[in-house]
Amino acid sequence: MKNQPLHYIDELFEFLRIPSVSAKKEHTEDCRKAAHWLIEKLKLAGITHMELVETEGNPIIYAEYFQDSSYPTVLVYGHYDVQPPEPLDLWKSPPFEPEIRQERIYARGACDDKGQLYMHVKAIEELLNENALRCNLKILIEGEEEIGSNSLERFVIANKEKLRADVVLVSDTSLISNECPSITIGLRGLCYLEVEVTGPNRDLHSGIYGGAVPNPINLLCEMIASLHDQDNRITIPCFYDDVAILSEEEQQEIAKVPFELVEYKKSLDLHDIHGEKGYNTIERTSIRPTLDVNGIWGGYIGEGAKTVIPSKAFAKISMRLVPDQDPDKITKLFTKHFQAIAPSSVSVKVTPHHGGVPVVVSTNTNAYRAASSAFEKCWGKTPIASREGGSIPIVALFKHTLGIDTLLMGFGLDEDAIHSPNESYGVFNFYKGIETIVAFYKEYGANSLK
Ligand code: BES
Ligand code: MN
Ligand code: MN
Q1: What distance in angstroms lies between residue 415's CA and the mean position of ligand 3's atoms?
Q2: Which of 127, 135, 181, 235 is the most exposed place for a label (fewest CB within 10 A)?
Q3: What is the CATH number of the domain that holds 38?
Q4: 408 alpha carbon, closest ligand
Q5: pTM higher than 0.85 for the full model?
Q6: 283 in any annotated domain
Q7: Nearest-angstrom CA–CA distance, 399 and 365
Q8: Span 23-80, pLDDT tens digits
């Protein structure tokens, strides 16, 4: 590979040392620090117009580089916030002290999304240095992606004119593998909620009352277990009503995705996999909806034993959605069903958190074709159009509010372990990503003059 300046990694390390965890109040100042740090780097890259937009949450960065109205405009999106690093004892090196081991950068955010976002800063810098950019740029970076993008959603709705562009460019997704490069064309939506089941008005002695009163943890477990049937299909009435049927072409594209079950199981130390009957692993993690408990708690979980029937039990539940499911409708269906299956001895409260609309983007665009050529040039292979299981809710908003398609050109790999302990990003993918982004701009700028 050509051009691999070492100082790019040193700079990324500075970024990774800022613990910009959006989920925690104690890191509010760190999020601001990350935003200021990025502004400095964008300036050094040659971007002239920059704004730090204050919000109710973490600041948004908006930057512009206008050259010529005959050039197409690319809106670059990314996020500087990261997931909480816990559990800390499972990290081999501390999450905010980046280090390289075996050609991989280890740190929280190394891939999601600081490493991938910083590739764009360096790609833009290289293009401007070479005077090779034939596009206008708008850059939009937020610090609340991992907690639902509330501030950015408001900003996008309030700034439709300002954000006008021909394509949104995002690196916040994964490749199928380095041997089988891909461009992401689909993301699942999300419906996230919390449930609370209440039994007696206080925690009780399990000997005095046990056997005669409802135990909310026992009952919550039963209710949750009933949400899937024997074929691992979700039992909420009407849940699948809006799931779109794949076209012939879409089925063919999915069938192209290589998959090795033995390796997959080995990478997760699993004896067997588990999922909806009638679908394979690729389908289960891309074009099918799911329901999962993310956390469950209640009663006594401290040291030793305490004989108690708890008053309350809680769970956080998420559903990944696919076209054309609607998160608001699914929230209503879930709530109604969960209330209906609750025994009369307990009361149930359902609180929605955040949601996201699923998306599929077109491959029949100048931007997709330019990205495909860039991959051919830099990776020597035509990329597969793949649908992924994760969610980036703002992508649907770009489509529905601004009318702009997003090009999801991400360079992560499943083994990067985003959101997990020991998140990492391959040094190869970092540099190769920069090269591919540069090639994309050259291709897109040359072929999209207005
Ligand atoms: N970058 C991820 C989404 C992603 C990862 C998409 C890999 C495709 C492949 C993003 O930062 C993320 O984690 N999104 C959240 C949703 C959000 C509303 C919390 C998710 O998917 O859980
Ligand atoms: Mn991300
Ligand atoms: Mn994430």
Answers
A1: 14
A2: 235
A3: 3.40.630.10
A4: 1
A5: yes
A6: no
A7: 14
A8: 999 999 999 999 999 999 999 999 999 999 999 999 999 999 999 999 999 999 999 9
Tell whether 13 and 157 lie within a shared domain: yes
- Is 113 within a domain? yes
Q: Ligand 1, from 318, 391, 413, 429: best to mutate by most atoms within 8 Å of Cβ?
A: 391
Q: What is the DSSP letter of 88?
A: G
Do 64 and 26 lie in one domain? The reply is yes
Pairwise CA distance, residues 266 & 272, whole Å = 10
Residue range 389-418: average pLDDT? Answer: 97
Mind listing the pLDDT tens digit for each residue in 246-294? 999 999 999 999 999 999 999 999 999 999 999 999 999 999 999 999 9
- CA distances for 443 relative to 128, 377, 384, angstroms: 15, 10, 18
Same-domain pairing of 343 and 362: no
Ligand number, closest to the Cα atom of 113 = 2
Domain containing residue 222: 189-243+289-356
Residue nearest to atom 18 of ligand 1 (CA): 148
Q: Which atom of ligand 1 is nearest to the CA of 391?
A: 21
Task: Kindly report the backbone phi and psi dihedral angles of residue 142, in degrees, each rounded to the nearest multiple of 5, phi listed first.
Answer: -115, 170
Question: Beta strand 312-321 with 189-198: parallel, antiparallel or unpaired?
Answer: antiparallel
Q: What's the gap in Å between 131 CA and the centre of ligand 1?
A: 34
Q: How many domains does the chain have?
A: 2
Residue 272 belongs to some domain of the structure: no
Q: Give the pLDDT of residue 53.
A: 98
| Ligand 1 atom 14, closest CA | 391
Domain termination residue (choose one: 338, 356, 374): 356
Query: What distance in angstroms lies between residue 166's CA and the mean position of ligand 3's atoms?
Result: 26
Q: What is the CA radius of gyration of the chain?
A: 23
From the list 385, 409, 371, the residue with the least C-alpha distance to 249 is 385
pLDDT tens digits, residue range 223-239? 999 999 999 999 999 99
Q: Which of 149, 182, 380, 197 is nearest to 282 (CA)?
A: 182
* Listed residue (385, 432, 444, 446) closest to 123, CA to CA: 432
Domain stop point among 322, 337, 356: 356
Q: Domain containing 235 — which CATH number? A: 3.30.70.360
Pocket of ligand 1 (CB under 6 A): 112-113, 145-146, 148, 172-174, 187, 190, 354, 356, 388, 390-393
What is the spatial distance between Cα 185 and Cα 152, in angstroms, rounded to a whole number? 22
